[in-house]
Amino acid sequence: MNTAHHPLAVLLTALATTTIPVIAATGTLDATFNSTGAVSTSFGATESANAIAVMPNGKIVVVGSTNVLGNSDIAVVRYLANGSLDKTFSSDGGTTTGIGAASQDFANAVAIQADGKIVVAGYTNADGTNDFVTARYNADGSLDTFFGAGGRVISAVGGNDDRATCVAVQPDGKIVVAGSTDGGGSDFVVFRYNANGTPDTTFSGDGRANNGFNGTEFCNALALQDDGKIVLAGYTDSQTNDFAIVRYTDTGLLDTTFDTDGKQTVAFGNDDRATGVVIQDDGAIVVAGSWDGGSSDMAIVRFNGVTGALDTAFSTDGKHTVNLGGADFCNALALQDDGKLLLGGYTNELGNNDFALLRLNSNGSSDTSFGSNAILMLDLSIGGDDRATAIALQKNGKALVAGTSLADFTVARLDTIAKTDARIGSSAPAPLGNNVYNENGNGQSLNVDVPKSGGVKTSFVRIENDGHATDSFLIGGTSGNSNFLVEYFNGNTNVSTAVKNGSFSTGNLAPGKSFTLKVRVTAKTGAANKQLTIFLTGSSDTDTTSTDTVRIKAKTK
Predict the structure, then answer these.
(1) Would you state the pLDDT for residue 217?
(2) Taking the CB of the first residue and of the last residue of the chain, which one, N or C, has fewer CB atoms within 10 A?
(3) Predicted confidence (pLDDT) per residue in 282-304, tens digit
(4) CB proximity list for 472: less than 8 A, separation 6 or greater
């Protein structure tokens, strides 16, 4: 293991990666990821993985901490998209960074810049008390010396215990880091840095803003709105522990359009702690975490993105809780492309702590097509202690869930969307899906020249189930016109009427399985250069929002 960034010494410990024999109590992991769907990585010490991000090139970055000779160091691991360690990153796939000579250093968050550089946020006691620390790494795993001092920025608010828990990179390259500060009573605090790590003085005058709720507050999550506003989520004990949300303008002021003072709290029970926040496409703000209703359960709430009021179109009153069966804790929230909400954490429902995921529809109802009645549990260590802490979504809709299993970094990958993947081909059946999903055929077109006056061309469309569960798919296709006869065949059976009506079903397809439809185009005209675009759409029978379209562009010659 490389620790070239530690100021005292280089500790040579082999970075070990383990294939986990996963037992999935509910749901199915993606077996194309490290052959079993999960991977565990050890630095040879006690590790804790706290955050995950996907790079533009598909590589996967996980950050947290490792305890080396009694001192905790920041730890960063990078995987290839298939789950193997990326040996181009610090020569063996992982690196550790110590901030001080014998300091305790922790990474809680990670974000990826557009140029592929990796921004990590957490805290260090290198200067005697806990302070924010932000580090930036180059693509090869070395610290970026153009950022801060030697690749690191330490920021003190003035209290004894300042801890960064979240980070995001704005479209303009500025870096937003948030967490909590203890200045006699813990408050939310957010810093904004220029791309070189210097304070952005256009933000609250000095690059920092902090606010409280007249109690002890802890910030756990951060989201950036499209208009530049910054949303923080966590909890406050101003009454009992309640969800707490703050929204700032892009200049660092409390946004008074949000619940009149820029702040909002929500109570579920006696101990409510928010750990994740996302912004939906319509601007609504969704916050998730846990609440104690006698035994901890997952909890989620949605706010109107304009006023900050509870959105009663979400689960009737704006709030929703789910008991997974044991003591359940939510640590992460992700928003899928189809609008569904994925919550991740852990539960002791099966005895020991296991990774736990819950998926909800965009309106707050349980998505029963996911796992077992919307719940998926993963016993990664077969009876050991497994805790998920973070979720990242890949471009193809698959979900990466990171956390700790038996004190090692652990990542699991699963399919989270019931994706329909249509692929088109000519002269022979189309190959399996290409992970291009759209509703207009862009990027999935086939040009065919049909000899005029009765000429025939045959093409093939393959509908693949790229989802996580068995599903059936309805296929709809374009009819012909005065120039072309369009026919559809299932093998040698003419199914044109059903396809043109949009009622033809593939029947049940297991994940990864496919169905091939033959498309025959006959020219009825004797004229050349007549054209027809044929659209074929496959739609999930259980989730009609999951569709994929291909096009055949026919032309007489």
Answers:
(1) 93
(2) C
(3) 999 999 999 987 789 999 999 99
(4) 505, 506, 507, 508, 509, 541, 542
Query: Please, what sign has the CA dihedral across residues 38, 110, 244, 72?
Result: positive
What type of residue is 439?
Answer: E
| Residues forming a β-bridge with 359 | 342
Please, are residues 57 and 36 in contact by the beta-carbon 8 Å criterion? no
- For the chain, give percent helix, strand, coil, nearest 5: 0, 50, 50
pLDDT tens digits, one per residue of 90-115: 999 999 999 988 899 999 999 999 99
Measured CA to CA, the distance from residue 271 to residue 339 in angstroms comes to 28
Q: Round the CA-based radius of gyration of the chain to a whole number and report it.
A: 26
Rounded Cα distance between 81 and 31, Å, is 13
89, 119, 81: which is closest to 15 by C-alpha?
89
- Reading the block at residue 420, the tokens are 């329909």
- How is the beta sheet containing 152-155 ordered, strand by strand? 105-112, 118-124, 131-137, 152-155
The yes-or-no verdict on residue 2 having pLDDT over 60 is: no
Q: Which helix (H) or strand (E) holds 498?
A: helix 496-500
What percent of the chain lies above the pLDDT cut of 70? 93
Dihedral sign from CA coordinates of 432, 438, 443, 444: positive
Confidence of residue 11 (pLDDT cuts 50, 70, 90): very low
Sign for the pseudo-dihedral over CA of 343, 345, 348, 352 = positive
The pLDDT of residue 418: 64
Q: Please say whether the beta carbons of 29 and 36 come within 8 A.
A: yes
C-alpha–C-alpha distance, residues 355 and 63, integer Å: 18
Residue 409 CA to residue 406 CA, distance in Å, equals 9
Cα dist from 364 to 23, 77, 271, whole Å: 29, 34, 21
